[in-house]
Write a structure and sequence with these properties.
Strand order of the largest sheet of chain A: 31-32-33-34-35-36-37-38-39-40-41-42-43
Largest sheet of chain B: 9 strands, antiparallel
Number of strands of chain A: 43
Distance between the termini of chain A: 43 Å
Largest interface: A-B, 38 and 37 residues
Oligomer: heterodimer
Structural class of chain B: mainly beta
Helix content of chain B: under 10%
Shape of chain B: globular
Largest sheet of chain A: 13 strands, antiparallel
Structural class of chain A: alpha+beta
Number of strands of chain B: 13
Number of helices of chain B: 1
Strand content of chain A: 35-45%
Strand order of the largest sheet of chain B: 2-1-13-12-11-10-9-8-7
Strand content of chain B: over 45%
C-alpha cells in the first residue's frame, strides 16, 4: 500500500478525525500543547475526571520538580561524556558541537513515566495512580502523526507515522545505509533497543505516533552513551512536541511503503528467535551443535532416540556464554556388562558437555563458539568443535569444524597440525578410569566440516537440515552402521513454551525422535495466591494500644521468621527475629512492615527489624513509616528514588522495652516428603527412595538447639543395587544399598549444637550427634566473617564414626578425623560465588574441593564442584576424582505459598569413596548470610512479558537475572 | 459478569454505567484491577490485562439496524493495542447468525462479526465474534482483545441501559 506523505494517513481518513492528525503535524506543533500547572495535591485520576478527555494518552507528560533536578544532572553528565568522546577523537568537533547544541536546546523537562492514563482504571489501581503535587505540571498533546529519527553523526529526520511500519523501515527511509541497532523511544517514554539488520531483526514494538528513534552510526561511541541519549529523548515527551528548528537541519521524508509480511516471513519481521536442542541436548541442529545459546538461567531435560542410541541429557545455562550439562547414552545393542552383573541393562555412557561463546554475532561476524562433547567421560563419544552461526531473518546457518567423534568423517588433515606439529594428527583414546579431562587429546586427530541450516517458521515449527561429520563405521563398542546419506534433516515442533518435540531422519535411513523440556530457572515466579492476605499499607493508623503477641504471630505467619522479641521505643518499634534469611528478603521485610503498620498507633514513626543469630544482631533493616507508606501507595515522582527501607550491618543495639514474655524453649515439628536418587548405575538407571520425613527441632533459651529427622520409607528400589563396587579405600559412601534397604524407619539425623559470637567477627559452634545417614560424632566450627565483606574464612574439625546400616543409635567400627579450612568469596561478577576447602576427607584422603556457583536474582543457583585428593585415579576407581554439577531452586519461586526452603539437586558421575565430605549439622556461613556483601540481592523474578500487563513489561536491558 | 478466558472462569463487577453519545458504556473490574469497558456490549477498551485495547475508534452498526438489514454490514474500526503500540486497523463484516444448538438465550437473536486484521508480527489474523442480543442488550458475547486473549462474556444480571 502506498501512503501519501504528511497528514493524509489512510487511518485518519477512514475514521473521520482528520483535524486532530492535521494539527498534530503542522509546523507549529508545539502550539498544540496545553500545559496544566498543578496547584494543589491530587491524584491523577481526579485531575482526569475534572478535565476534558486526553486525546492521546501515550503523549500525556507529567513533570515534577524532583525529576527536573535529576535530569539536569543527567544532562551535565551527558555533556561531560560528549566532551570526553571528542577529546578521545571518537567524535569530530563539528559533530560534538551539533550534539551539544541539541542537548542544550532540549530542556530537562522533569518528565516521569505514567501508566495507562484512564481515570477509572487508576482509581481501581491506587498504587499506580500518581499523586500530583503543587509545582507539578501535566502537558496534554494533540494526537501526533509523525516519527522523528535522530542519529549521532548528527542528523535528524521526520516522517509521517504509518501503522505497520517498524523502526527499521523509518531508519532506512531516513538513512539509506545499513545500520545495526537503534533505540526506539515511544511517546510514553518506554525505551527499547531494536535490531535494524537481517541478523538481528525480530518482533518488536511498532513506533507509535510521536515516537523517537535514536540511531547509533558512530561505532566508536559506547552503547551506554546511546542509551543515555535515548533516555534524554524519552524525557522530552512525544517527538512532535519539540519544534523542528530545535533539531535543525531536519530532513522531511515521506513515509515508506508498508511491506506486507509474507506467509513464510523469511525476513523475520515477526521472529522471536528461540534456539532449539540438537539430538545431543545442547543447542544445535540435529547431530551437530551451533554457536547459539539459550538465555542465562535456562535448564532443560532432553531425550532423544536414534537406533541404537538413546540419550537423556540435562543442560544448564549458568551464564549467557556458558552452556554445560551431562548426558547418559544407552547403547541398546550392547549390554552394560555380564548378565550376572547387570542383567539386561543396556550399556550406558556418561558424559559432561561444555560450550563457550567466544564472539557475539554482529553485522559482519558470526556468533562463534567452542565446545567439548563428553569432556570428562570415558571418551567414547568425545569430540571438540569450533562452530560459527549467522542469521538472515528466519534462516540461521551454521558451519563448524569438528574433532574426535565430530571429525569421524575425516574430511581432511587436522589444520592445527600446521601450527602445532604432527602430534595433532593423532588422537589417543585412553578410556582408563574415565572422568579425567583428557586435555592431551583435545582437538587432535582427523577433522571434518559440519554445518547446516535452520528455518524458524512462524507456526511453532522449525525445519533443520545438516551435513553430518560422523561416518558411523567406527562407532563405540564396536558398532558400525550403514549410512545412506550424510545429510540429516528434521523438524522441531514447539506446542507450548518450554516444550520441543523433534522428528527427523539421520544417516539417510534412521528415523529419530526426541523431546526437550526447558525452563528459565532465573525467571521462575509464582503468584502467591494461597498466602494469607497481607494488610494493605494505609495511612489511617490504629488508635488502640498494640497487641504485641498478635503482632509477633502475624509477622511469623507472613514472613516465616521466628520473632524473638519486640522492643517498644519512644517512636520506634524493633522486631528481633531469628532464622530470618529467607528467599526474597525485601518482600519479607515489606510484609513485616505491613503487619507492623497495621498493628501500631501513629506515634511510632520508625519501624525496624533486627536479624539475629546466636542471640546477636547481625543486621538491621527498617523504614521511616511515612515514607514507606508513600512509596507503597503512589508511584515514584522521579526515576531514581531511594528505597524507603535501609539495611545496616553491625547496627548499634536497639533500645526499648521488651513487650513479649521470655521464651523458655521453642519447639517445632514439620512433616514433609524426602526423595533420594542415584542415576546411571549398572543395576538400574534410576535408583530412588521416597520417604515420609518428620523434621523436629527444639531451641532452648540458652541458644542450644536440638534437631533431627526421622524417615519412613514409602517407595524404594535400592534393593536392585547389587553392585556396591569394589573400593580400595574405606567404604565411606559406597554402602548405599545397605543404608537404604536395611530398615524402613530410620533416624536420619539427631544432633545438638550451640553457636556463639566469640568476638566482633568470629563465630564458633560445637555440635555432636548423628550428623547424617552414614556418620555421627562430634565437631566444632569457627568462622571469621567481616560484615559486608565478600570474603569469609571457616575451619571445621570433626571426629566421626560410621553409623550402623539400620540408622539407629548404633555405630560401626570405622572412625576418622575429618575437617576443612574453607575460604569463601562472593565475586563482584553477576552473582558468582566460590569456595575452596582444603583438608582431610572421610576416607582419610587429603586434598581440596573447589566450588563455583552462579546465583540468579531470584535465588536459583547453578554450580559445579571438583575434589582432588591424594588418592591416585586407579585407587579412586571409575571417574578418577570426585566432581559434579548442582542446582537449587527456592520453593518460593514455584509454589503458590511463600516458603523458606530450597529444592536442591546434585549430579555426580559416580558415587565413590574418595573426596567425600561429611554432612554437618551446622553451617556458620549459611547461618550468617546477613553479614554477606549483598544479603538483600534476592528478589522474585519478574514474570515473563506475556504474563503481565503491557505497562509492567520489561525490556531486556531492564531485566535482572 | 461471568468472564471465561481459555476455559477458566472469573467474575468482573460493574463499576459504572453511563450514556455517552447515544451509547451505553459499562466499566467492569476484576479483583486484580483489570478493567473492561463495553460500549453497547462490544469491547471498547481493556486495561490492566496481558493485552490491552487503549482506544477504539469506530461507528459499528446499531443492534437495531441489524435486524432491519437484509445483508451483511461491512464497517471498520481502529484500535490502539498494547503491547506493541500497534494501531490496529480492523475490517468487520456483521451479519445475523443462526442460534447455536445449545442456546441458553431463548428469544435472543444471534449476530456474528467476522474480523480481519493483522497480528503484531504482521501475519493476518481473522476471527469471529459472536453476540446474543435481545433488544439493545447483549446477553452473551465472544470477543477477542488479542490473538492470545479471547473472552466469553455473560452478564449475570439484567442490564438496563
Amino acid at each position: 500500500m502506498k501512503v501519501r506523505p504528511f497528514g493524509l494517513l489512510t487511518a485518519a481518513m477512514l475514521l473521520g478525525s482528520p483535524s486532530v492528525w492535521a494539527s498534530a503535524h503542522s509546523p507549529a506543533v508545539s502550539q498544540s500543547v496545553q500545559v496544566h500547572k498543578i496547584a494543589s495535591p491530587q491524584r491523577l485520576s481526579a485531575w482526569l475526571r475534572q478535565n476534558p478527555p486526553v486525546k492521546h494518552p501515550l503523549s500525556l507528560v507529567w513533570t515534577t520538580p524532583e525529576a527536573v533536578i535529576e535530569q539536569r544532572n543527567a544532562q551535565i553528565e551527558l555533556l561531560g561524556t560528549l566532551a570526553e568522546q571528542e577529546q578521545q577523537g571518537h567524535l569530530s568537533p563539528a559533530a560534538a558541537a551539533q550534539l551539544q547544541a541539541w542537548l542544550n536546546a532540549l530542556p530537562a523537562t522533569g518528565r516521569v513515566r505514567l501508566p495507562a492514563v484512564d481515570a477509572s482504571w487508576l482509581e481501581a489501581n491506587l498504587p499506580r495512580d500518581p499523586m500530583l503535587a503543587a509545582g507539578d505540571s501535566l502537558r496534554v498533546h494533540a494526537r501526533p502523526s509523525i516519527v522523528r529519527v535522530l542519529s549521532d553523526d548528527p542528523r535528524s529526520c521526520e516522517l509521517p507515522h504509518q501503522s505497520g511500519l517498524r523502526a527499521h523501515d523509518y531508519v532506512k527511509a531516513c538513512f539509506e545505509d545499513a545500520l545495526a541497532h537503534a533505540w526506539l523511544i515511544q511517546p510514553d517514554g518506554r525505551m527499547q533497543r531494536v535490531g535494524l539488520d537481517s541478523w538481528n531483526q525480530r518482533l518488536e514494538n511498532e513506533p507509535a505516533p510521536g515516537a523517537w528513534i535514536w540511531v547509533p552510526r558512530n561505532s566508536k561511541l559506547p552503547e551506554d552513551f546511546h542509551k543515555r541519549w535515548a533516555q534524554w529523548l524519552a524525557w522530552q515527551g512525544p517527538s512532535h512536541a519539540t519544534p523542528r528548528d530545535t533539531l535543525a537541519p531536519m530532513t522531511l521524508r515521506p513515509a515508506p511503503e508498508v511491506i506486507a509480511t509474507s506467509l513464510l516471513d523469511v525476513s523475520g519481521r515477526g521472529l522471536e528467535p528461540e534456539p532449539t536442542s540438537s539430538d545431543w541436548g545442547n543447542v544445535g541442529l540435529l547431530q551437530t551443535p551451533t554457536a547459539r545459546m539459550r538465555p542465562a538461567g535456562s535448564f532443560g531435560v532432553h531425550m532423544h532416540r536414534v537406533w541404537p542410541y538413546r540419550q537423556i541429557s540435562v543442560m544448564l545455562q549458568p551464564m549467557p556464554w556458558i552452556e554445560t550439562g551431562f548426558r547418559y547414552v544407552s547403547i541398546e545393542n550392547r549390554l552394560y556388562g555380564p548378565r550376572e552383573f547387570s542383567g539386561d541393562q543396556d550399556y550406558k555412557d556418561k558424559s559432561i558437555d561444555l560450550k563457550l561463546r567466544l564472539l557475539e554475532e554482529s553485522r559482519h561476524l558470526p556468533e562463534l563458539a567452542i565446545g567439548w562433547r563428553d569432556l570428562g567421560g570415558t571418551g567414547l563419544f568425545s569430540g571438540e568443535y569450533l562452530v560459527a552461526s549467522k542469521r538472515w531473518g528466519r534462516l540461521d546457518a551454521s558451519l563448524g569444524l569438528g574433532w574426535g567423534y565430530l571429525g569421524n568423517r575425516a574430511m581432511f588433515q587436522n589444520p592445527l597440525s600446521r601450527v602445532g606439529g604432527d602430534t595433532f594428527n593423532t588422537r589417543v583414546i585412553d578410556v582408563g578410569q574415565g572422568g579425567t579431562f583428557a586435555g592431551k587429546s583435545w582437538f587432535h586427530g582427523t577433522t571434518s566440516l559440519f554445518g547446516g541450516l535452520e528455518y524458524q517458521s512462524p507456526w511453532n515449527v522449525d525445519l533443520k537440515i545438516e551435513y553430518d561429520p560422523g561416518n558411523y563405521r567406527r562407532e563405540p563398542q564396536g558398532n558400525a552402521f550403514e549410512v545412506a546419506s550424510p545429510i540429516n534433516w528434521g523438524m522441531v515442533y514447539k506446542p507450548s513454551r518450554g516444550v520441543e518435540l523433534s522428528l527427523g531422519v539421520n544417516r539417510g535411513n534412521r528415523l529419530t525422535f526426541g523431546w526437550t523440556l526447558h525452563t528459565d530457572l532465573s525467571g521462575l515466579n509464582m503468584p502467591k495466591v494461597t498466602n494469607p492476605p497481607l494488610p494493605r499499607p494505609r495511612a489511617d493508623h490504629e488508635r488502640t494500644p498494640p497487641n504485641w503477641s498478635q503482632m509477633a504471630r502475624d509477622i511469623e505467619r507472613h514472613t516465616q521468621w521466628q520473632v524473638e522479641q519486640i522492643l517498644d521505643g519512644q517512636d520506634r518499634v524493633t522486631v528481633q527475629a531469628s532464622k530470618s534469611m529467607t528467599p526474597a528478603p525485601n518482600d519479607r521485610l515489606d510484609k513485616a512492615l505491613a503487619v507492623m503498620n497495621t498493628h501500631l498507633p501513629q506515634r511510632y514513626q520508625f519501624l525496624s527489624v533486627e536479624h539475629q543469630f546466636a542471640g546477636e544482631t547481625l543486621a538491621a533493616e527498617g523504614a521511616d513509616r511515612k515514607q514507606w507508606i508513600q512509596q507503597k501507595t503512589q508511584p515514584a515522582r522521579s526515576t531514581s528514588v531511594e528505597p524507603a527501607t535501609y539495611l545496616i550491618q553491625e547496627p548499634r543495639p536497639a533500645s526499648g522495652e521488651a513487650t513479649l514474655p521470655g521464651k523458655g524453649f521453642q519447639a517445632s515439628l514439620r512433616p514433609g516428603m524426602d526423595f533420594i536418587q542415584t542415576i546411571g548405575g549398572p543395576d538400574g538407571f534410576v535408583l530412588y527412595q521416597l520417604s515420609l520425613a518428620l523434621h523436629g527441632s527444639v531451641k532452648l533459651s540458652s541458644g542450644t538447639e536440638v534437631k533431627g529427622m526421622v524417615r519412613q520409607r514409602l517407595l524404594n528400589n535400592y534393593d536392585k543395587f547389587k553392585n556396591g563396587g569394589s573400593s580400595d579405600l574405606p567404604r565411606v559412601r559406597t554402602h548405599l544399598r545397605e543404608y537404604f534397604v536395611t530398615s524402613e524407619t530410620t533416624l536420619s539425623s539427631l544432633s545438638v549444637s550451640q553457636s556463639v559470637r566469640a568476638s566482633d567477627n568470629l563465630y564458633l559452634a560445637v555440635y555432636g550427634g548423628l550428623f547424617e545417614e552414614m556418620f555421627g560424632g562430634v565437631g566444632a566450627e569457627a568462622l571469621y566473617r567481616w560484615p559486608g565483606s565478600p570474603f569469609a574464612v571457616g575451619l571445621d574439625m570433626n571426629r566421626v564414626q560410621q553409623r550402623d546400616f539400620k540408622q539407629d543409635l548404633r555405630f560401626r567400627d570405622y572412625k576418622v578425623n575429618t575437617g576443612h579450612l574453607t575460604g569463601y568469596w562472593t565475586t563482584p561478577w553477576d552473582g558468582i560465588h566460590t569456595s575452596v576447602s582444603i583438608g582431610q576427607y572421610l576416607a582419610g584422603d587429603r586434598g581440596a574441593t573447589v566450588s563455583v556457583a552462579k546465583t540468579f536474582a531470584n535465588g536459583a543457583t547453578m554450580g559445579a564442584f571438583a575434589t582432588k585428593t591424594n588418592v591416585p585415579a586407579e585407587v579412586f576407581g571409575e571417574g578418577s576424582f570426585d566432581k559434579g554439577i548442582f542446582w537449587s531452586i527456592p520453593f518460593d519461586a514455584f509454589l503458590t505459598s511463600s516458603s523458606r526452603s530450597y529444592a536442591n539437586f546434585g549430579w555426580k558421575p559416580l558415587t565413590r569413596d574418595g573426596g567425600a565430605m561429611v554432612g554437618r549439622p551446622v553451617s556458620l556461613y549459611n547461618d550468617t548470610q546477613w553479614l554477606g556483601s549483598n544479603p538483600r540481592r534476592q528478589r522474585p523474578a519478574t514474570p515473563p512479558n506475556d504474563r503481565v500487563a503491557p505497562d509492567d513489561r520489561l525490556e531486556e536491558h531492564e531485566r535482572r537475572r | 459478569m461471568e468472564v471465561s478466558v481459555g476455559g477458566h472462569q472469573t467474575v468482573m463487577v460493574l463499576g459504572s454505567r453511563f450514556s455517552q453519545g447515544g451509547h451505553t458504556l459499562e466499566q467492569w473490574f476484576s479483583g486484580e484491577g483489570e478493567m473492561l469497558e463495553l460500549r453497547d456490549g462490544r469491547v471498547h477498551r481493556a486495561l490492566g490485562m496481558t493485552s490491552e485495547i487503549r482506544r477504539t475508534q469506530a461507528a459499528p452498526p446499531a443492534w437495531q439496524a441489524l435486524s432491519e438489514a437484509p445483508k451483511a454490514i461491512a464497517w471498520q474500526r481502529e484500535r490502539d493495542v498494547m503491547p506493541g503500540y500497534q494501531q490496529r486497523q480492523e475490517k468487520i463484516t456483521t451479519r445475523k447468525a443462526r442460534a447455536p444448538r445449545s442456546n441458553a438465550f431463548g428469544g435472543a437473536s444471534w449476530v456474528e462479526e467476522e474480523v480481519s486484521t493483522q497480528r503484531l508480527n504482521g501475519q493476518a489474523w481473522r476471527y469471529t465474534e459472536r453476540f446474543a442480543v435481545q433488544g439493545q442488550q447483549v446477553l452473551y458475547s465472544e470477543q477477542c482483545v488479542s490473538p492470545s486473549l479471547c473472552l466469553k462474556l455473560k452478564p449475570l444480571g439484567v442490564v438496563k441501559p
